[in-house]
């Protein structure tokens, strides 16, 4: 069955994609959840008419994401924390804290875009992957230092 996605569906496609899926998947999941509509003649004609607008919007969103990624690459955060002997932290530095600091630096970023490789529980410099959208990623440099 051919369907047009009304929103991003993990493992299937992005909003506005025309996909061919199994009948059961569309009937039991995509259509009831509102994630897709059946691609009949009228819907396909409408999809074709709005294709250029979707592509322009996607280019704009990608350009914004790439500009944000460049700002993130240039940003170097310093996080003062309470630390004990041998540089061990009392607690951990979380993605939420890092996201707040990035937002205070003037870069609008969803904290879910931050992907910590491991919990930050010691003083030092860390590289944090930031995935803004598929194909647009950056690495944020964070220095965790002891409070004075």
Notes on the protein architecture:
- The structure is a single chain.
- The protein has 148 residues and is an alpha+beta fold.
- The protein folds into two domains: 2-49, Ribosomal Protein L9, domain 1 (3-Layer(aba) Sandwich); 65-146, Ribosomal Protein L9, domain 2.
- It has four helices and nine strands.
- Strand 8 (124-133) and strand 9 (136-146) form a beta hairpin.
- The longest helix is centred in the middle third of the chain and has 24 residues, at 51-74.
- The radius of gyration is 21 Å and the shape is elongated.
- It starts with a strand and ends with a strand.
- 16% of the residues are buried.
- The model has no long low-confidence stretch (mean pLDDT 90).
Topology:
Layout: E1 2-5, E2 18-20, H1 23-33, E3 36-38, H2 41-49, H3 51-74, E4 76-81, E5 88-93, H4 95-104, E6 114-115, E7 120-122, E8 124-133, E9 136-146
Parallel strand pairs: 4-9
Antiparallel strand pairs: 1-2, 1-3, 5-7, 6-8, 8-9
Quick structural gist:
With 148 residues, the protein is of the alpha+beta class.
User: For this structure, what is the CATH class of the largest domain?
Assistant: Alpha Beta
Indicate the percent of residues in helices: 25-40%
Q: What is the typical, i.e. mean, pLDDT? A: 90
Number of helices in the DSSP assignment: 4
């Amino acid at each position: 069955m051919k369907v047009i996605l009304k929103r991003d569906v993990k493992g299937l496609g992005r909003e506005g994609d025309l996909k061919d899926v199994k009948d059961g998947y569309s009937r039991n999941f995509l259509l009831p959840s509102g994630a897709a509509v059946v691609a009949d003649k009228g819907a396909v004609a409408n999809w074709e008419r709005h294709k250029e607008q979707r592509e322009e919007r996607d280019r704009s969103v990608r350009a914004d994401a790439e500009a944000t990624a460049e700002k993130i690459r240039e940003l170097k955060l310093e996080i003062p924390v309470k630390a004990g002997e041998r540089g061990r932290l009392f607690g951990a530095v979380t993605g939420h804290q890092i996201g707040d600091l990035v937002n205070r630096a003037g870069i609008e970023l969803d904290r879910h875009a931050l992907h910590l490789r491991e919990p930050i529980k010691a003083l030092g410099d860390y590289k944090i992957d930031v995935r803004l959208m598929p194909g647009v990623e950056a690495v944020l440099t964070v220095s965790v230092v002891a409070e004075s």
